[in-house]
Amino acid sequence: MTNPSNSAATSVAIALAGSGGAGIMTAGNMLLEAAASAGYYALMTRSSGPQIRGGEAAAMLRIATHPVECMPAGFDLLAAVDWENVHRFGAEIPLGAGGLVLGDEAEGAPPAVFTASGAAIAALPLAAIARGIPGGRPNMVLLGLVGALLGLPEDAMHEAVSRTLGKRPAALEPSLAALAAGRSAAGSLQPFTPLAPPPGSAAGRWLITGNEAAGLGALQGGVRFVAAYPITPATEMLEWLSPSLESVGGVLVQAEDELASINMAIGASYGGVPSLTATSGPGLALMLESLGLAVASETPIVVVDIMRVGPSTGIPTKSEQGDLDIALHGLHGDAPHLVLAPNGVGDALATTQWAVTLAESLQCPAIVLSDQFLGQARAVIDRPAAGASPAARDVAAAAAEGDAPYRRYALTDSGISPMAIPGTAGVTYTADGLEHGERGTPSSQFTDHAAQLDKRLRKLADHDYGERWADLEGEGDLAVITFGSCTGPLREALALAYERGLAVRLVSLRLLAPAQPARLAAALAGVRKALVLEQNHSGQLLRHLKSSFDLPVPLASLRKPGGQQFNAAEILRHVVEWSAA
Amino acid sequence: MTNPSNSAATSVAIALAGSGGAGIMTAGNMLLEAAASAGYYALMTRSSGPQIRGGEAAAMLRIATHPVECMPAGFDLLAAVDWENVHRFGAEIPLGAGGLVLGDEAEGAPPAVFTASGAAIAALPLAAIARGIPGGRPNMVLLGLVGALLGLPEDAMHEAVSRTLGKRPAALEPSLAALAAGRSAAGSLQPFTPLAPPPGSAAGRWLITGNEAAGLGALQGGVRFVAAYPITPATEMLEWLSPSLESVGGVLVQAEDELASINMAIGASYGGVPSLTATSGPGLALMLESLGLAVASETPIVVVDIMRVGPSTGIPTKSEQGDLDIALHGLHGDAPHLVLAPNGVGDALATTQWAVTLAESLQCPAIVLSDQFLGQARAVIDRPAAGASPAARDVAAAAAEGDAPYRRYALTDSGISPMAIPGTAGVTYTADGLEHGERGTPSSQFTDHAAQLDKRLRKLADHDYGERWADLEGEGDLAVITFGSCTGPLREALALAYERGLAVRLVSLRLLAPAQPARLAAALAGVRKALVLEQNHSGQLLRHLKSSFDLPVPLASLRKPGGQQFNAAEILRHVVEWSAA
Amino acid sequence: MIDMTLTPAHYKSDVKPVWCPGCGDFGVLNALAKALAKLALRPEDVAVVSGIGCSSRIPAYTSAYGFHGVHGRALAVGTGLKVARPDLTVVVTGGDGDGYSIGGNHFLHACRRNVDLTYIVMDNRVYGMTKGQPSPTTEADWTSKLMPQGTGLGEIKPMAIALAAGANFIARGFTGDPNGLADLIVSAVEHPGFSFVEVLSPCVTFRPEQREWKKMVRGHALAPAADSVEAATRIFADDGMNLGVLYAGTRRPFAPPIGRAQRTPTDLERRFAL
Amino acid sequence: MIDMTLTPAHYKSDVKPVWCPGCGDFGVLNALAKALAKLALRPEDVAVVSGIGCSSRIPAYTSAYGFHGVHGRALAVGTGLKVARPDLTVVVTGGDGDGYSIGGNHFLHACRRNVDLTYIVMDNRVYGMTKGQPSPTTEADWTSKLMPQGTGLGEIKPMAIALAAGANFIARGFTGDPNGLADLIVSAVEHPGFSFVEVLSPCVTFRPEQREWKKMVRGHALAPAADSVEAATRIFADDGMNLGVLYAGTRRPFAPPIGRAQRTPTDLERRFAL
Amino acid sequence: MKQAVLDFMARACAMEAEAAERYAELAEQMWAFHNREVAKLFGKLARIEGLHRDQILEKMGWTEAPDPSAFRWETPEGPETTDYGELHYLMQARHALELALHNERRAAEYYERLSEADIPEDIRREAAEMAEEEREHVRLIEVWLAKTPDPDARWDEDLDPPVSVD
Ligand SMILES: Cc1ncc(C[n+]2csc(CCOP(=O)(O)OP(=O)(O)O)c2C)c(N)n1
Ligand SMILES: Cc1ncc(C[n+]2csc(CCOP(=O)(O)OP(=O)(O)O)c2C)c(N)n1
Ligand code: SF4
Ligand code: SF4
Ligand SMILES: [Mg+2]
Ligand SMILES: [Mg+2]
Questions:
Q1: Has residue D235 been placed in a domain?
Q2: Across the strands, what pairs with C199?
């Protein structure tokens, strides 16, 4: 509870846990939906054991009276149906000092890792209560209990359960009974600080994951062709896109591998249809050669990389910001392209939409760096702001006989040359990954090479990216520069710092390449020193800032590898120390 | 002629040219060999038209009394059997003001691009002379002529021709006759400044290409398994390696693609056999995912990238230093590895050998960045210095029952953990690209991830790389920092600068990753400012220096894209300007 | 729309081929132009897609839209293009190295996926462009610098693989017979689904002995089987020199609907609204 | 050297499988252990190599040397290992997604290359590890989140492809019969060259209907043909449920000599000395 | 004129057109490979065949030759058309003339056979006329050949390695 008084909390963090098959994830989702419809903001992430199915599971939720983008340093409530292997989540579910650990009487003491913090312990006969209801399940008893402890309205809970199980009446009734039983059992517990009243109604808010938001952004941007190969944690984005694309007149092709997906997307885009693929690190690595082809042939294409822990297979289910290097520099030769990163679940929509727009108008590939946290987190958010206008490719008109021959790669001032779309008469050409002259004919002349390199750089460098390139917040002579999913906890940390009288600016870069050194320098005007916050081992953002921005301020680094998200308190502690140093 | 007096030249640059099938390359090779056996140093590069066979061709040679590593700003002699499309080489064969353009009378005037510089023009009836000899060819007449002009001994020329054609008596006799006819025809020409006497005998010198040197270095380093897929300009290295490996008890497998080559090499290395693959940019791009596997599974492996012009297919036959970015940062996640670059034809041997040694002892992948120029240039060099000692992998001994279980990824102080080789009893393990604990068992714990990341970084960061990390030459408060094939012309430029009284240090980085900031800072002690020289469009080395070295001196950049090598005069001009700025 | 008759010459561009004189690929270009003329397709409604190799240079030599991609990925590019633009006629072209070595996986899956496009492989049993290394169709004992003792490996049988992987139309042509080849290409383009045309196309530079192929091929030796078992028996016993159509199947092409929107993206937002 | 008798238990490690209870892969692990015991190979002389997928987790569950590489590349790793270390017994393992989708090209070329190793594919006609997407062997009408209408594509026939690509030994087993499967694995390991064993291995989580396979398979329904034409006729008409050895060929394995040095690298320097 | 004769003349015209077109194409190939001598020769042959085509056009009062690919022959292409596969970038005049001779002979034979076949008289007459013209070409080329030296024994030897353009 961020509210230390005993009255009501503006933010509560709850973890539900238990062994596989106990329905923990389902209960978590119901709790999230109940909170949402009761008018709260909320965020849910998940974790599970290594088993494909039936391993231990945890649903981690934060419910608040204000938008939330990260988990807190300490959980207020851990509620488990059993303790089988739940200790494995020790690092992920740190209990706050004032926290409560709630379990089943019959399961014995909770693992020490949770109680070491001094959290209170409570136990109830969950399974026994469930057994008392034909078809009743402990997870529903637990859910009823937790809802009651949090002070969530009974009808909101009821509705959330009914919505999920509505189609299975055989399951619905016992579940509702168990829910009610849990709710009444709550009375026997020590009072728990309930949530403060909700900040208005749910109307106008969305319940969405980052992966869904990115998918929707792609469609809003005009994408109508997607080819992809399944990979965690990008699969859900594809699974959302597949039927959605179909309904808006597009198509998703499941490719044989990532080499095929990127090339299918390139082929479709060459045909004039805005195209996208989504993957994660290992898949992105396989796409690099063909991304270079998109650069050289000037074919628009968007690749969404939902980053997970690397290197290699790494930890597929955990988040890391370790693909910045490969996204910026993974192409062979000099191959300017776009790299963008959403910095919140909702922002995944606008940023992906913007990526499509930019790729289309600049005729080059755009990589969108989302991550497992943003992608799989499910959040109640305010309706996202409208994104950039949809794709506008500069298209060559049909030519008649006698017109000058079409120059696909004409050396225009802007660097952008109108692109002929197959089917258009008089402007046929061959797109080529070989270096070429203006008409596209292969050339090994130094002058042609230099001219085309200049053109391809120019079109990116000279474009006006407007205000979206970064989110700039706050004032002061200190700044923290970050990107992606570190933004949420940073924002919260800086709000806390401000409360404590420490004013620090937040800079969250949305456009990572081409680098915007002048803009960033302007944003840092008056700043004495800056801290670079990122989630990876080697300081990839720090290196990027050093190599491509020539900033006038000294940079310090705050980073840790993936597998464990930053929280606001942790950042705050570092910022305070650094500000004093 | 670098010697402007009329006496004798210490360095002469000659280009032989003509249309396909005229035997220009062969004549060039013969001239090179004649110069070599006469006791000169020499360097030859080639260029040709877009046709697979029979396109226009040029052999560019520099013959000198001292080792040469680049072509000069101006050629002294262009000798052609015909002018068909030879103008296409205009940019590659700039004629010096005192130069001579020599052609066949019957072919008309040489292209203006060559004579605009004010070069002298001479013509002889080459074809007619050749026709006078049954089976005679104009290229041999030209060769005889050029040999005479340069003052190369008749027997050296004779021998070079005999060695090449020895096995074909039908061709040999007419060729020698044509050679002699050419030699006597030289008398009718204006006198040409001949070469100064050779600096000693050929004994102890080598005639070798950079690709061959890299291949030999690999074998010297202990490589006995190579898997590869053909690609220009790496193919010659593979073609040299294939029979050579067999003779030293190794094997080369032609893989179905680059994904297979890198994984075959990883498999062989896992089996305990030092392994390598060679490729160029597009192939390297395909290997990145599996390079990450080599990092995570700690499998030694060497990848030689003979860089060509990018992005995408680019210009396969031209050189560029455009793959530094991908070599340094192309892997997803945090994946520390080695990147090295030879800085001369002969150095390709020692650097590749060192790469093998480092990869083996540090159990990680090493990328060797050679390029088309170094790889395909054929040079007379002093016998290369011995390389590093051969591979020494830290191998786990067999264990008996009762011993503690083998920990393949033990968190040792050095970061290096003894590696069990299949066949060894008691220490079986499963190598894994999934994040793992010390025994190799997959783990998604943050602590295991952080520990293994630290270990993999530590083993590279803490290793003592000795003096080979860079070549440091000269004195003064200015420095030029470069790598790879820019080193040759830079060395020559700085020697000229020194003659003019401008002392500038040369720093040629051989070990590009892990970065050696402390060493470089020490090398730059007393330096006021530094210039970064490289052959690519975006300043990849400059960015690397900025991001990973935190140098105490201001850096300026001198760079141009691939397709046209730097020459010493060009660098000198820039250095002089920059030194004064 | 266009009234004038399109002759084969209309389908050639003004870009000069880099191919060696005598190269079989000239005949393929000729046959392709003839086939497109017979099909009376407008050049702008045709897209010729390729990878990298001598043979893969063909798109720029046609007057159609062309895409010269990276090595081995032509079928993927062609698939994306055809699925996104079903109105176009897509012809994917390339060599034995491009298609069967680095591109083998896309070949397998293009056969299986059965998108309505035509794949023409100019098989010269060698990597021409990189100067003569063995390809998957090279004879085991053919020696080269890279494989001085030969590969020692059996050649793959692309038509058998195509059949096993589900290609809907499988034929073999010879570049020395541009008219016969043009007919095969016409049938391939007209046949619904994935059509595979293997073309014996000599590399006179690295495999001069292939000049003999013209004496070895057997025209019209293959007759189309509609039954894959029958085709299999035939192709497993084939020596590679029989020309004609091996198989013409009836599998439904993969052509997911595109362009038929029932909703707008904004409609989809409703799914997330609370 | 080692005297004691090796039982199947010796070939299992102490790492706990992450597989779902009921998963067919348990039976494959069991059969593999049995086969290695029958072959009396020392665990340290065996290497089990895999890619990524549920099935690809198998190496760590054995007591042999293991290599758990990246998705789709297991055969390449196994090939390099076997060529470099001909003394080892190399068993490559994986799933239908790993082997036939992303790894399809290596499958083709491993068949052709005929290195003496054994490839065991646990075919469950689904991507288990990524939670249930269709693989190349999935039925056209099987619906999933990613393909709500099914793929609409015909399944590939891996055994037919193996045959067309030149595999030297081709068999099909069923995980529900670990003993029969162990026998097949023994024959596969003993047969020289590339041996391919397709194993029907149900995914009880995403394809619970595959529990019925045990009623559908026909044991010993395939008898080894030494003639590829005969094998082809048989396999093109096969419904996928016949167990046994389809083909046992006599092609010479690819085993380039290694370790027989006639020269030292220093000897080679002479080629460059003037 | 009877349809059969019209068809015959169209076929003859197409045959000449195809041969001319092919020679022109081969000339271009030779230019691209700097083989001037042979390029010129192919150019000349293209003109000769073109003339023959034009004669037929004129005689028939046509403006455009029919598309050669509309016709089929016993040989893969028209009897007068050079096979692409016969070319070599180092070929010499003699080779080119031998190719031309082969083509003209085939053409002459083709018409001769027609002129003797059991077909309408008017076609036979036209064929005989064409055969005579082709024989004329044969004689012409034979004269050229007599003046053209044999290629030297090493005519196709290119000591230079091929290049890789990727
Ligand atoms: C990723 C990659 N690997 C290798 C190459 C080099 N390469 C270019 S063409 C080619 C082989 C061409 O053979 P084939 O497809 O048979 O065409 P051909 O030249 O014989 O017509 C190779 C290996 C490349 N361009 N890209
Ligand atoms: C390059 C890459 N792409 C995608 C993935 C994601 N991925 C992991 S396993 C798998 C499919 C596994 O299917 P299969 O091989 O059939 O194994 P199963 O789980 O069914 O046993 C995929 C697509 C990955 N790890 N790497
Ligand atoms: S090298 Fe061979 S395939 Fe390439 S153009 Fe020449 S003849 Fe054709
Ligand atoms: S998901 Fe399927 S394949 Fe994977 S372990 Fe479970 S049952 Fe086996
Ligand atoms: Mg080929
Ligand atoms: Mg599977």
A1: yes
A2: C122, C173
